[in-house]
Design goal:
Elements lengths: L4 E10 L3 E10 L2 E7 L2 E8 L4 H11 L9 E6 L13 E6 L46 E2 H13 L2 H6 L3 E6 L5 E7 L2 H14 L9 E4 L5 H9 L4 E4 L5 H10 L2 E4 L7 E4 L4 E2 L2 H5 L4
Parallel strand pairs: 3-6, 7-14, 10-11, 11-12
Antiparallel strand pairs: 1-2, 3-4, 5-6, 8-9, 8-10, 12-13
Helix pairs in contact: 1-4, 4-5, 5-6
């Protein structure tokens, strides 16, 4: 199999029937070293694949770039395993000469795990990033049926989750529910970075008039990543954190949680959601 997923022999225990051997499929997880201008910046744990999107989105999330012309090139650097094969686990980003390199205070002192996208940040001040894009004035409107259906739409397209059951997903949608981009990864923050990086490389930032649907909870870092990409609405299957809601309120982002098909909770800026859209979508009303 590819590095995205790997087969492993396991022992399956089942009540009343003892133990049996079977083959299972696991989501791939490998380190990726990100270099900027020849200098190592951080190491993140990720599912291999869409690495250039991941690095591009990471640079947007760090506030380093926000325009595709600022990112001159992305390339894999030399890196060999014990068998002498290319690992494809080191990516170098070359920035335009006038783009300011990240301050050393932003560099990660330890690797970024697949569960935490801001772990290892050198200072508390470096956690909070300033966005070049405002979402407060985005007057996009969403219908309740469309928003509530997005988790199912996301799940329908999660091919890696189907085979492994071990990855998160992030999907970028239009107000009418059209899927623009889907990315999967063992890290929820990586999945979002891959979507944002795709959008940067396609010249689509800021992502006005869109909604980002994520498969897990809505953390502070995911709200900040959406803000830095100019996304006016973040929707999550699970709950947001208090700090995530605070940041969404402050920046003018609509934050949705517990989106479950026929219901959802809106924590901030509900004016973007049409409260009468349920009735409009129901026959006989």
């Amino acid at each position: 199999m590819s590095r995205v997923a790997q087969r492993r022999r396991i022992t399956k225990f089942r009540a009343g029937s003892g133990a049996g051997s079977r083959e299972d499929v696991l989501a791939g997880e490998e380190p990726l070293e990100i270099r900027i201008g020849g200098r190592a910046f951080t190491i993140t744990m990720r599912t291999p694949g869409d690495d250039f999107d991941l690095v591009a989105g990471f640079l947007v999330s760090e506030g380093v770039v926000w325009d595709p012309t600022q990112l001159v090139s992305l390339r894999y650097c030399a890196g060999l395993d014990e068998d002498g094969l290319q690992t494809f686990n080191v990516v170098e980003a070359q920035l335009r000469p006038d783009v300011q390199l990240p301050d050393t205070a932003m560099e990660r002192n330890v690797y970024t795990s697949s569960s935490c996208g801001i772990c290892g940040t050198a200072s508390i001040e470096a956690v909070r990033k300033s966005s070049r894009f405002e979402v407060k004035d985005d007057d996009v409107r969403f219908s309740l049926p469309v928003l509530a259906a997005l988790p199912d739409r996301l799940r329908e397209t999660q091919k890696l989750f189907d085979s492994t059951g071990g990855v998160h997903a992030a999907g970028l949608f239009t107000p009418d529910g059209k899927l623009l981009c889907l990315r999967e990864d063992v890290g929820r923050h990586n999945a979002v970075d891959k979507v944002v990086g795709w959008a940067l490389r396609e010249g689509l930032l800021p992502l006005r008039g869109t909604v980002l649907q994520v498969s897990g909870r809505a953390s502070f870092e995911l709200v900040q990543k959406a803000q830095l990409a100019g996304i006016p609405c973040l929707s999550a299957v699970s709950a947001p954190s208090s700090l995530a809601a605070d940041l969404a309120e402050e920046t003018g982002m609509t934050l949705v949680g517990f989106s479950r098909g026929r219901s959802l909770n809106c924590y901030t800026h509900p004016a973007r959601i049409d409260p009468d859209s349920w009735a409009q979508a129901t026959p006989g009303h």
